[in-house]
Write a structure and sequence with these properties.
This protein is an alpha/beta fold and about 260 residues long. It has helices spanning about 10-20, 35-45, 90-105, 145-150, 160-165, 185-190, 200-210, 230-255; strands spanning about 25-30, 45-50, 60-65, 70-75, 110-115, 130-135, 155, 170-175, 195-200, 215-225. The chain has a 5-stranded mixed beta barrel. Strand 3 (about 60-65) and strand 4 (about 70-75) form a beta hairpin.
């Protein structure tokens, strides 16, 4: 069980060290789109939780099961009740991450999904990245210190052995609530030195950080943001194929995690 941020600094640090030496027992995979989620549900033979752990009336969906020694929980924010589309973006991601941590007390969070990639940073279609750090690019607060809060830079949990074993690309992830990229967004993304951009990662990182749960971010590239094609068109064109690459990599991540401690990742 991961430690929670409600004790003294020294006690909390000791609890973190202790937790990193215990075998990982429970993982939560936060994934925004049904298209991204279902291949993993099928691969791990997860079942939908009909007696939901979540508040009555919310669209959030939990699939669960076991793989070797791991309790695997896949959390999908579900379809928006009003518009009937996937509940993408930072608000839903924050809510389901918080609710999942409270209900399941995971040892590790995996935020998996698709992302836009920047060819200037070495990204190509279907590449799968493990984010080294995450930040926002659309929270502009031009006041000292508030500007840093708006960017919200956070480090992902370090997994050098996982990166080496799976030969994953590593890059910085920038998050915003729009699929397109305004000039102001672009300037901040460049300042963030991001190789990939998504709509959930930094929100998941924020919640995981304040609740002291390690989090990693696995992102597969559906579109080249600094390429020639319109983002929405390229995203939809490549979604199915790239989701297959995401499914394979997340499965390999879960396989690698099984039987290990956090300190061995």
């Amino acid at each position: 069980m991961a430690p929670r941020g409600d004790g003294s600094g020294a006690a909390e640090e000791a609890a973190v060290v202790e937790a990193e030496k215990r075998p990982i027992s429970t993982v939560v995979i936060v994934i925004a789109m049904q298209t991204e989620a279902l291949p993993l549900v099928n691969r791990f033979q997860l079942v939908e939780d009909r007696d939901s752990l979540f508040p009555k009336g919310v669209p959030w969906v939990r699939y669960y099961g076991t793989y070797k020694d791991l309790n695997v929980n896949l959390i999908w924010p579900g379809k928006d009740p009003l518009f009937g589309v996937d509940s993408v973006g930072t608000i839903s991601a924050s809510l389901v991450t918080y609710a999942s941590i409270q209900a399941l007390q995971p040892d590790l969070i995996i935020n998996a999904g698709t992302a836009g990639g920047f060819k200037a940073k070495g990204a190509s279609l279907s590449d799968v990245f493990l984010a080294s750090e995450v930040a926002f690019h659309d929270r502009r607060i031009p006041i000292p210190v508030f500007d840093l809060y708006g960017v919200g830079l956070r480090q992902a949990f370090s997994t050098p052995n996982l990166v080496k074993e799976l030969s994953l690309k590593v890059g910085k992830l920038s998050t915003g609530d729009s699929l397109d990229m305004s000039q102001q967004d672009e300037a901040t993304i460049i300042a963030n030195d991001a190789a990939i951009k998504d709509m959930e990662g930094a929100a998941v990182a924020y919640v995981a950080d304040i609740l002291k749960v390690p989090a990693i971010f696995v992102k597969a590239v559906t579109d080249i943001v600094d390429g020639d094609k319109p983002t929405a068109e390229e995203f939809l064109q490549n979604l199915a194929a790239v989701t297959a690459a995401l499914d394979q990599t997340v499965s390999q991540v879960v396989e690698f995690i099984s039987g290990k401690c956090l300190s061995e990742l």
